[in-house]
Amino acid sequence: MENISRLYSDRAGKMRKSEIRELLKVTQDPEITSFAGGLPNPKSFPIQDLQGVVQTVLDHHGKTALQYGTTQGLDELRENIAERSCKDGIDVTADNIIITSGSQQALDTVGKIFLNPGDIPLVGLPTYLGGINAFRSYEANLIGIPLDQDGMIIDALEEKIKYLQKENLTPKFIYSVPTFQNPAGVVMPESRRKKLIDVANEYDLVIVEDDPYSKLRFDIPHIKPIKAFDDEGRVIYMSTFSKILSPGFRLAWTIASEKLTRKMIICKQALDLCTNTFTQFIANEFIKSGSLDLHIMKICEMYKPKRDIMMNAMEKYFPDGHICNKPKGGMFAWVTLPEGIDTEILFLDALKEKVAYVHGKAFCVDGSGGRSMRLNFSYSSNEQIEEGMKRLGAVIDKKLKVLCQ
Known about the structure:
- By secondary structure, the chain is α/β, with parallel strands linked by helices.
- It has 13 helices and 13 strands.
- The strands form three sheets. Strands 2-9-8-7-6-3-4-5 form an eight-stranded mixed β-sheet, with helices on both faces. Strands 10-13-12 form a three-stranded antiparallel β-sheet.
- Helix 3 packs across helix 10 and helix 11 packs parallel to helix 13.
- The N and C termini lie far apart (53 Å).
């Protein structure tokens, strides 16, 4: 059909490509050092261990693992996640857990349940692009709340809520990535997490807590999730196996109140009937064998030196005046460059030198972030990080010299 677009829904007509997904296509060239994606290092995948686990699943659970499953997810996997979550400070049972097809499905489910066209989610400034895309697909009006080195600024959040109320507007929820935030890498301290709960309680709002990275910590002790301080059932917590086991499994989970969980299950039934049953069995056996915690330790031991190499290379090769708070875990560094540089334009120059990143505007719902970039340190080899940062520093220096002429 030549004019198929005339049949699209209004919502489909407003859909936009993901900046990061499109960037990943560009950076498939093996000669390019890519700091762009949020990819785990493939050397971290426990391939040999999983070979035995897969065989165990096929030998003992094959007929069930290869069949359709329940929408909510494998009972034993949810029970194991509940047990692990209780150790992290969340009071939960398996009944409040849903296994989703990646965290992106969980984000889309939240959008579908809560957002009408024009509704307002409050998000970090900057915030995770996948969350932005999920909520914008439901025609939401995203409003950003600035971050500092301790995450979302609660005073600014409350001021924005009060302003919106004066305009007869009520936000639907607050979206936060509180631990090793994507893209900024910052960690919200416990005191601020409690204040965030207080604000949500006072203004009767839902909090969506996205927590993919908290296990990837290098220089900081465990910090309780926001959900651990939730006494009124208003926090939807989500996490994933993508960063601690395998993104290819497409396994994540949500923790929410009984009422919200029921609504999310109904929504999920229309999306995929059930999450991949086979990979649920594999993940469950991996947990039962005691391998997961050991594997997470190995990932952290791999990523911390990569973080350090990137930070040291930044000091060597980047110009004076750049700003980057050293991340204490996770997978990303957020860099702000001197005045005059537009990282969206600079990206094309960097690509010519075989190095890639994600420009800051992609993460900022108000169009800011023009001087910033997100750099991933988990994927590249140590040698690639050093060389890639050297090339990127040279590109920035060249641009600054042009600006000074």
